């Protein structure tokens, strides 16, 4: 998927005009180009669409010419595509660049499902809490402190043949 180099040039100019505090890097990603702010994707160009990291996906999708970032077939939270009419004017492009700065600076939120579940517990702890006995598939043989195992290299496959 080639990307529009003219759009990428306009985006670079708008980012430098905004003057974000931090390191801005450019990397080829997803068949397009991405601009990272301090290591986080903030903006990008795929074909002729902008890709913008946002803090509030629903609010960004309410803006004209924005649509979900569904590169993998499933919408990605925190990223949106912007069609060319949505950034045709310099003021519109500057507004999207500002949203990208805020999106890259925002902490990554854990999903509500993970937050509700809390920390994971091991299978053994879960079994014991349910009153079930855990199965031990294989137990290691006890070793004396300081004992060393002998290394038996695998036979065949690698290295010179003897």
From TrEMBL:
Region ranges (Disordered): 113-162
Annotated ranges, domain TfoX N-terminal: 20-102
What lineage does UniProt assign to this protein's organism?
A: Bacteria, Pseudomonadati, Myxococcota, Polyangia, Nannocystales
Task: Output the superkingdom of the source species.
Answer: Bacteria
* Basic and acidic residues bias (residue ranges): 113-131
Q: What is this protein called?
A: TfoX N-terminal domain-containing protein
Question: InterPro entries from the entry?
Answer: TfoX_N
């Amino acid at each position: 998927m080639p990307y529009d180099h003219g759009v990428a040039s306009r985006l670079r100019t708008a980012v430098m005009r905004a003057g974000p505090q931090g390191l801005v890097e450019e990397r080829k990603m997803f068949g397009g180009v991405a601009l990272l702010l301090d290591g986080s994707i903030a903006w990008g160009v795929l074909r002729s669409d902008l890709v913008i990291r946002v803090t509030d996906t629903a609010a960004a999708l309410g803006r004209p010419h924005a649509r979900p970032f569904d590169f993998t077939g499933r919408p990605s939270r925190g990223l949106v595509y912007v069609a060319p009419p949505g950034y045709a004017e310099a003021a519109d492009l500057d507004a999207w660049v500002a949203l990208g700065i805020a999106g890259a600076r925002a902490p990554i939120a854990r999903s509500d499902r993970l937050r509700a579940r809390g920390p994971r517990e091991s299978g053994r702890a879960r079994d014991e809490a349910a009153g079930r006995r855990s199965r031990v598939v294989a137990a290691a043989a006890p070793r004396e402190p300081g004992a060393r195992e002998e290394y038996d290299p695998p036979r065949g496959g690698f290295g010179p043949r003897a």
